[in-house]
Protein backbone atom coordinates (compact mmCIF):
# COMPACT_ATOMS: atom_id res chain seq x y z
CA UNK A 1 0.00 0.00 0.00
CA UNK A 2 1.60 3.26 -1.12
CA UNK A 3 0.55 6.13 1.10
CA UNK A 4 1.94 9.55 1.96
CA UNK A 5 4.15 9.05 5.06
CA UNK A 6 2.79 12.30 6.52
CA UNK A 7 -0.67 10.76 6.78
CA UNK A 8 0.31 7.70 8.80
CA UNK A 9 0.39 9.31 12.24
CA UNK A 10 -2.95 11.00 11.60
CA UNK A 11 -4.45 7.79 10.27
CA UNK A 12 -3.50 5.87 13.41
CA UNK A 13 -4.61 8.62 15.81
CA UNK A 14 -7.98 9.08 14.12
CA UNK A 15 -8.83 5.38 14.34
CA UNK A 16 -7.46 4.71 17.84
CA UNK A 17 -10.70 5.78 19.62
CA UNK A 18 -12.53 2.94 17.84
CA UNK A 19 -10.16 0.36 19.33
CA UNK A 20 -10.67 -1.53 22.58
CA UNK A 21 -8.54 -0.40 25.57
CA UNK A 22 -6.24 -3.38 25.03
CA UNK A 23 -5.87 -2.66 21.32
CA UNK A 24 -5.19 1.02 22.03
CA UNK A 25 -2.51 0.05 24.55
CA UNK A 26 -0.87 -2.20 21.97
CA UNK A 27 -0.90 0.60 19.39
CA UNK A 28 0.72 2.98 21.88
CA UNK A 29 3.40 0.37 22.57
CA UNK A 30 4.12 -0.15 18.87
CA UNK A 31 4.14 3.53 17.91
CA UNK A 32 6.27 4.34 20.94
CA UNK A 33 9.11 2.11 19.75
CA UNK A 34 12.14 3.97 18.46
CA UNK A 35 13.90 0.87 17.11
CA UNK A 36 11.28 -0.18 14.58
CA UNK A 37 12.68 -0.93 11.12
CA UNK A 38 11.81 -3.02 8.08
CA UNK A 39 13.32 -6.12 9.69
CA UNK A 40 11.29 -5.96 12.91
CA UNK A 41 9.33 -9.20 13.03
CA UNK A 42 5.68 -9.77 13.86
CA UNK A 43 6.71 -12.14 16.65
CA UNK A 44 8.99 -9.51 18.21
CA UNK A 45 6.26 -6.87 18.18
CA UNK A 46 3.70 -9.30 19.60
CA UNK A 47 5.98 -10.35 22.44
CA UNK A 48 6.88 -6.74 23.23
CA UNK A 49 3.16 -5.86 23.36
CA UNK A 50 2.19 -8.95 25.34
CA UNK A 51 -0.36 -10.20 22.82
CA UNK A 52 -0.60 -12.81 20.07
CA UNK A 53 0.60 -12.46 16.49
CA UNK A 54 -3.03 -12.66 15.37
CA UNK A 55 -3.94 -9.71 17.61
CA UNK A 56 -1.25 -7.53 15.99
CA UNK A 57 -2.52 -8.40 12.51
CA UNK A 58 -6.11 -7.69 13.59
CA UNK A 59 -5.14 -4.28 14.98
CA UNK A 60 -3.21 -3.39 11.83
CA UNK A 61 -6.29 -4.13 9.73
CA UNK A 62 -8.56 -2.13 12.08
CA UNK A 63 -6.21 0.80 11.52
CA UNK A 64 -6.77 0.47 7.78
CA UNK A 65 -3.64 -1.41 6.74
CA UNK A 66 -3.50 -4.68 4.81
CA UNK A 67 -1.64 -6.42 7.60
CA UNK A 68 1.39 -6.21 9.86
CA UNK A 69 3.98 -5.73 7.09
CA UNK A 70 1.99 -2.90 5.56
CA UNK A 71 1.59 -1.29 9.00
CA UNK A 72 5.32 -1.72 9.76
CA UNK A 73 6.38 -0.19 6.45
CA UNK A 74 4.05 2.78 6.84
CA UNK A 75 5.08 3.38 10.45
CA UNK A 76 8.81 3.24 9.67
CA UNK A 77 8.35 5.66 6.76
CA UNK A 78 6.38 8.01 9.00
CA UNK A 79 8.94 7.91 11.82
CA UNK A 80 11.67 8.80 9.34
CA UNK A 81 9.70 11.76 7.94
CA UNK A 82 10.37 15.38 8.83
CA UNK A 83 6.81 15.75 10.08
CA UNK A 84 7.08 13.01 12.71
CA UNK A 85 10.29 14.49 14.10
CA UNK A 86 8.60 17.80 14.87
CA UNK A 87 6.78 16.56 17.95
CA UNK A 88 8.55 16.02 21.26
CA UNK A 89 7.22 15.82 24.79
CA UNK A 90 7.57 18.71 27.22
CA UNK A 91 9.59 17.92 30.32
CA UNK A 92 10.04 19.72 33.68
CA UNK A 93 13.67 20.45 32.77
CA UNK A 94 12.85 22.32 29.55
CA UNK A 95 14.09 25.88 29.21
CA UNK A 96 11.84 28.66 27.90
CA UNK A 97 13.34 28.28 24.43
CA UNK A 98 12.73 24.51 24.58
CA UNK A 99 9.09 25.09 25.49
CA UNK A 100 8.55 27.59 22.70
CA UNK A 101 10.22 25.32 20.15
CA UNK A 102 8.24 22.23 21.19
CA UNK A 103 4.88 23.99 21.33
CA UNK A 104 5.42 25.67 17.95
CA UNK A 105 6.69 22.45 16.35
CA UNK A 106 3.66 20.53 17.62
CA UNK A 107 1.42 23.13 15.98
CA UNK A 108 3.39 22.96 12.72
CA UNK A 109 3.08 19.16 12.77
CA UNK A 110 -0.69 19.41 13.24
CA UNK A 111 -0.98 21.79 10.28
CA UNK A 112 1.26 19.68 8.02
CA UNK A 113 -0.53 16.43 8.82
CA UNK A 114 -3.98 17.98 8.61
CA UNK A 115 -3.17 19.37 5.17
CA UNK A 116 -1.99 15.91 4.06
CA UNK A 117 -5.27 14.20 5.03
CA UNK A 118 -7.72 16.96 4.09
CA UNK A 119 -10.50 15.67 1.84
CA UNK A 120 -10.59 18.22 -0.99
CA UNK A 121 -13.99 17.08 -2.25
CA UNK A 122 -15.41 17.67 1.23
CA UNK A 123 -13.60 21.00 1.38
CA UNK A 124 -15.13 22.16 -1.92
CA UNK A 125 -18.59 20.98 -0.92
CA UNK A 126 -18.39 22.78 2.42
CA UNK A 127 -17.37 25.99 0.65
CA UNK A 128 -20.25 25.67 -1.81
CA UNK A 129 -22.80 25.05 0.94
CA UNK A 130 -21.61 27.97 3.06
CA UNK A 131 -21.51 30.34 0.10
CA UNK A 132 -25.07 29.56 -0.96
CA UNK A 133 -26.70 29.28 2.46
CA UNK A 134 -29.56 31.48 3.61
CA UNK A 135 -28.58 31.07 7.26
CA UNK A 136 -25.26 29.83 8.66
CA UNK A 137 -25.36 28.58 12.26
CA UNK A 138 -22.21 27.46 14.06
CA UNK A 139 -22.34 25.09 17.05
CA UNK A 140 -19.55 24.46 19.55
CA UNK A 141 -18.74 24.31 23.24
CA UNK A 142 -15.61 25.48 25.07
CA UNK A 143 -12.58 25.82 22.82
CA UNK A 144 -14.62 24.75 19.79
CA UNK A 145 -16.89 27.76 20.30
CA UNK A 146 -13.85 30.03 19.99
CA UNK A 147 -13.12 28.59 16.55
CA UNK A 148 -16.75 29.17 15.58
CA UNK A 149 -16.52 32.82 16.68
CA UNK A 150 -13.35 33.36 14.69
CA UNK A 151 -14.97 31.99 11.53
CA UNK A 152 -18.15 33.99 12.08
CA UNK A 153 -16.07 37.16 12.44
CA UNK A 154 -14.29 36.51 9.15
CA UNK A 155 -17.52 35.82 7.30
CA UNK A 156 -19.07 39.03 8.59
CA UNK A 157 -16.13 40.98 7.19
CA UNK A 158 -17.18 39.96 3.67
CA UNK A 159 -20.90 40.45 4.27
CA UNK A 160 -21.90 36.86 5.06
CA UNK A 161 -23.91 36.79 8.26
CA UNK A 162 -23.79 33.84 10.62
CA UNK A 163 -24.70 33.02 14.22
CA UNK A 164 -22.67 31.23 16.89
CA UNK A 165 -24.35 29.09 19.54
CA UNK A 166 -22.38 27.74 22.51
CA UNK A 167 -25.26 26.74 24.78
CA UNK A 168 -27.09 23.41 24.47
CA UNK A 169 -30.58 24.94 24.68
CA UNK A 170 -29.77 27.71 22.21
CA UNK A 171 -28.32 25.19 19.77
CA UNK A 172 -31.54 23.19 19.84
CA UNK A 173 -33.64 26.34 19.39
CA UNK A 174 -31.51 27.30 16.40
CA UNK A 175 -31.79 23.81 14.91
CA UNK A 176 -35.58 23.83 15.32
CA UNK A 177 -35.85 26.89 13.06
CA UNK A 178 -33.57 25.79 10.23
CA UNK A 179 -34.60 24.42 6.85
CA UNK A 180 -33.28 23.17 3.50
CA UNK A 181 -31.64 26.50 2.58
CA UNK A 182 -29.61 26.63 5.79
CA UNK A 183 -26.24 25.22 6.87
CA UNK A 184 -24.92 24.16 10.24
CA UNK A 185 -21.22 23.85 10.99
CA UNK A 186 -20.61 21.75 14.10
CA UNK A 187 -17.25 22.10 15.79
CA UNK A 188 -16.28 19.24 18.10
CA UNK A 189 -12.75 18.03 18.71
CA UNK A 190 -13.90 14.64 20.00
CA UNK A 191 -16.92 14.46 17.70
CA UNK A 192 -18.79 12.99 20.65
CA UNK A 193 -20.15 16.06 22.48
CA UNK A 194 -23.80 15.18 23.06
CA UNK A 195 -25.11 18.76 23.04
CA UNK A 196 -23.55 19.43 19.63
CA UNK A 197 -24.64 16.06 18.24
CA UNK A 198 -28.25 16.50 19.40
CA UNK A 199 -28.55 19.94 17.81
CA UNK A 200 -26.84 18.82 14.60
CA UNK A 201 -29.20 15.85 14.32
CA UNK A 202 -32.26 18.08 14.80
CA UNK A 203 -30.99 20.56 12.20
CA UNK A 204 -30.56 17.74 9.71
CA UNK A 205 -34.00 16.34 10.47
CA UNK A 206 -35.39 19.76 9.58
CA UNK A 207 -33.62 19.70 6.22
CA UNK A 208 -30.54 21.79 6.93
CA UNK A 209 -27.19 20.73 5.51
CA UNK A 210 -24.64 19.80 8.15
CA UNK A 211 -20.86 20.16 8.19
CA UNK A 212 -18.77 18.62 10.97
CA UNK A 213 -15.25 19.68 11.90
CA UNK A 214 -13.65 17.09 14.17
CA UNK A 215 -10.42 15.30 14.98
CA UNK A 216 -11.74 11.78 14.31
CA UNK A 217 -13.18 10.58 11.01
CA UNK A 218 -15.30 7.87 12.65
CA UNK A 219 -16.62 9.96 15.55
CA UNK A 220 -20.38 9.84 16.28
CA UNK A 221 -20.98 13.29 14.77
CA UNK A 222 -19.69 12.12 11.38
CA UNK A 223 -22.69 9.80 11.08
CA UNK A 224 -25.10 12.76 10.93
CA UNK A 225 -22.97 15.17 8.88
CA UNK A 226 -23.36 15.73 5.15
CA UNK A 227 -19.75 16.90 5.01
CA UNK A 228 -16.88 15.92 7.32
CA UNK A 229 -13.67 17.91 7.65
CA UNK A 230 -10.95 16.36 9.82
CA UNK A 231 -8.04 17.90 11.65
CA UNK A 232 -5.37 15.86 13.37
CA UNK A 233 -2.95 16.55 16.20
CA UNK A 234 -0.58 14.56 18.35
CA UNK A 235 -1.33 15.05 22.01
CA UNK A 236 0.97 15.44 24.98
CA UNK A 237 0.28 15.06 28.72
CA UNK A 238 0.41 18.82 29.29
CA UNK A 239 -0.98 20.30 26.07
CA UNK A 240 -3.38 17.51 25.15
CA UNK A 241 -4.58 17.27 21.55
CA UNK A 242 -6.93 20.20 21.66
CA UNK A 243 -4.38 23.01 21.57
CA UNK A 244 -2.65 21.91 18.36
CA UNK A 245 -5.89 20.62 16.80
CA UNK A 246 -7.50 24.01 17.37
CA UNK A 247 -4.76 25.65 15.29
CA UNK A 248 -5.24 23.09 12.52
CA UNK A 249 -9.01 23.62 12.56
CA UNK A 250 -8.56 27.39 12.38
CA UNK A 251 -6.41 26.87 9.30
CA UNK A 252 -9.06 24.65 7.69
CA UNK A 253 -11.71 27.29 8.28
CA UNK A 254 -9.41 30.09 7.10
CA UNK A 255 -9.03 28.19 3.83
CA UNK A 256 -12.82 27.69 3.68
CA UNK A 257 -13.28 31.44 4.22
CA UNK A 258 -10.94 32.27 1.34
CA UNK A 259 -12.63 29.71 -0.90
CA UNK A 260 -16.06 31.15 -0.13
CA UNK A 261 -14.85 34.72 -0.72
CA UNK A 262 -13.26 33.70 -4.02
CA UNK A 263 -16.63 32.55 -5.37
CA UNK A 264 -17.79 36.18 -5.51
CA UNK A 265 -14.52 38.04 -5.22
CA UNK A 266 -15.80 41.45 -6.29
CA UNK A 267 -18.58 41.41 -3.69
CA UNK A 268 -16.24 40.09 -0.98
CA UNK A 269 -13.72 42.81 -1.74
CA UNK A 270 -16.40 45.50 -1.64
CA UNK A 271 -17.91 44.27 1.63
CA UNK A 272 -14.46 43.92 3.18
CA UNK A 273 -13.70 47.56 2.36
CA UNK A 274 -16.98 48.65 3.94
CA UNK A 275 -16.52 46.67 7.14
CA UNK A 276 -12.89 47.74 7.48
CA UNK A 277 -13.88 51.38 7.05
CA UNK A 278 -16.58 51.03 9.71
CA UNK A 279 -14.04 50.20 12.42
CA UNK A 280 -11.25 52.42 11.16
CA UNK A 281 -12.36 55.29 13.40
CA UNK A 282 -11.74 53.10 16.46
CA UNK A 283 -8.02 52.90 15.77
CA UNK A 284 -5.53 55.31 17.28
CA UNK A 285 -4.12 57.73 14.73
What is the total number of structural domains?
2
Q: Under the CATH scheme, which class of the largest domain?
A: Alpha Beta
Major sheet characteristics: 5 strands, parallel
Name the quaternary structure: single chain
Strand order of the largest sheet: 2-1-3-4-5
Overall morphology: globular
Protein name: DNA-binding transcriptional regulator, MurR/RpiR family, contains HTH and SIS domains
Pfam family, one: HTH_6
Organism: Roseivivax halotolerans
GO biological process, one term: carbohydrate derivative metabolic process
Describe the structure.
Helix 1 crosses helix 6, helix 3 crosses helix 4 and helix 8 runs parallel beside helix 11. The termini are far apart. The protein is of the alpha/beta class and 285 residues long. The protein is globular, with a radius of gyration of 21 Å. The protein is built from twelve helices and five strands. Helix 10 links the parallel strand 3 and strand 4. The protein has a five-stranded parallel beta sheet, sandwiched between helices. It folds into two domains: 76 residues, Orthogonal Bundle (Arc Repressor Mutant, subunit A); 164 residues, 3-Layer(aba) Sandwich (Rossmann fold). Keywords: DNA-binding, Transcription, Transcription regulation. One of its GO terms (biological process) is carbohydrate derivative metabolic process. GO terms for molecular function: carbohydrate derivative binding; DNA binding; DNA-binding transcription factor activity. This is DNA-binding transcriptional regulator, MurR/RpiR family, contains HTH and SIS domains.
Amino acid sequence: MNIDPRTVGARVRMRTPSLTPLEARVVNTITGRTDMDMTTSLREVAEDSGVSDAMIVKIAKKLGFNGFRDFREALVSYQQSDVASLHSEISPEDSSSDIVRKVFNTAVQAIEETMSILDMEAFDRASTLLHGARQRDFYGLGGSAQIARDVSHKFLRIGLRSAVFDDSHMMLMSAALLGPDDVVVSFSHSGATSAVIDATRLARQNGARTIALTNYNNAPITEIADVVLCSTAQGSPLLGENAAARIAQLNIMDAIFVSVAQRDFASAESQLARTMKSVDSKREK
